[in-house]
Amino acid sequence: MRLNSEAPINSKDNMHRVVITGLGVISPVGIGQKAFWQGLIAGKNGIGPITHFDSTEFRSHLAAEVADFNPDMWIDKKNSRKMDRFTQFAVAAASMAMEDSGLDTYAFDKERTGVIIGSGIGGSQTIGDGAKDLWEIGPKTLTPLFVPRLLINMAASMVSIRYGLQGPISALSVACSTGANAIGDAFRIVQYGDADIMLAGSSEAAITPLAYGGFCATRSMSVNEDPNTASRPFDKERDGFVMGEGAGIVILESLEHAQNRNAPVYAELIGYGNSAEAYHYTAPDPSGEGMMRCMKRSLEDAGLKSDKVDYINAHGTSTALNDKTESLAITRLFGEHAHKVKTTSIKSMIGHLLAAAGSVEFISTILSIKNSIIPPTINFQTRDPECLLNYVFNEAVEADVDVALSNSFGFGGGNVSLIAQKFGAEDGRS
Questions:
Q1: Catalytic residue, candidates 16, 216, 315, 387
Q2: In CA terms, which of 15, 137, 237, 359 is 20 to 30 Å from 257?
């Protein structure tokens, strides 16, 4: 049977609007969205000397660790011992998001509720400890929990099991864009009506000797010994990123479903752009073409012109290549508006959370829309002549944010841009 070539396929007229109704976050500047947000707008620096292991012989010595995390607050000890730290982070963040959304006490359809939670490295501590035991003692030392602890999909699986969620499930691994990919893919699932609710985000806990040492070998991390200047996106003297850890989970819900249960709404997700650089396995295309293409797709998906964007939450890693390339891409795409739209990178405070960066930074973006405040890029001292946008440096600013764009770009060339809009604001879509 031939399809009518004039019939619309996946017409936006037939899609569901998608809103954010719950947030859960674990970060180096605070656990829980309130502590996280207070830390950001205060310009709190979550970076310091590594405490997870002795870093004396490593090339870099700083990290943005999550302090005072006690999994027993969210997970019973029997189940907690089955999980690597990254899975514990994910389950705890999901628990916060469920409570925040009110779904923890609401009788929702579990067959219409799914989970997408990704990670870049997965059970980093488990892998390192297991390899050490294998070579030093022998294979009989490996526990039956070794494989379940290391698998990237266990974060999504444990959340699904905890709440009995029987809808779509997936676990992505797209390096530093993972969290944004997860949120974007979950957005599509709700848009198309394949689920009413999706828990989406990412988790990473890779401040371990093996993973940290591997990134030291790439020479992409800062060797600065001063926590107050080590992560400084867009600064001329930046010398690399600082590794962080954490998790971010958001509740995405169809507008109809959210309204039927009188759910709180933070913002509406309206655009998702996903593109491959197809250039190099670590470096971005210096022309900014790949990043620009991704942002353009998100704007087209949202039905917006670039001058409708009030704020850009930049990927802003504090590496020489990323910051100038992202700035160039924004300049090329946004034209004159590029120097008006406020831009910032919270990696200056929380470090680079690798796969968790996209989801945690998206949560920050949503809170900026909700609270009309843009957190700063701290540690700025010297202007880079190749980074000339309207960055928010050193102190948070109050600003009306009706539309915000959040960028995530990863090793291997995975690019994602997400666009959210203030719920109830005048719709600027064409």
A1: 315
A2: 359
Q: How far apart are CA 240 and CA 206, in angstroms?
A: 17
* Radius of gyration for the chain, computed over Cα atoms and rounded to the nearest angstrom: 21
Inside any domain, residue 13:
no
Contact 162, 74 (CB under 8 A): no
pLDDT tens digits for range 202-230: 999 999 999 999 999 999 999 999 999 99
> Residue 92 half-sphere exposure, CB side, CA atoms within 13 Å?
27
Angle at 403 between CA 23 and CA 41, to 5 degrees: 55
Please tell me whether residues 117 and 248 are part of one structural domain.
Answer: yes
| Options 176, 216, 294, 387, the catalytic residue | 176
Domain of 106, in residue numbers:
20-260
Active site residue 352: yes
176 is catalytic: yes
- pLDDT above 50 for 330: yes
State the pairing for strand pair 48-49/62-63. antiparallel
pTM for the model stands at 0.95
Q: Is residue 8 part of a domain?
A: no
